[in-house]
Amino acid sequence: MAGQNSFIGFLAGILGAAGCTQVGPDFAAPAVEVANEWELYESAALKTTAAATVEWWQVFDDPILNELVIIAPAAARPVAHSPTA
Hints:
single chain; mainly alpha
């Protein structure tokens, strides 16, 4: 058993070292487009629409889960009322 563990350790070491090899002499880093300055959230490129309300829990057809989803928002305490550590 000890011989098998040694072989597995040796194999893991060889495979780990193989991941550290060079890519090759003809490797060229890909060109990446980068903005000249930070885009603010008002940018049209960053506009998003509200996500549609998806009632995913309905898939389970579970009346208890449906009830929990209804009462959970009323039972949830605001973070300000949560106990501190």
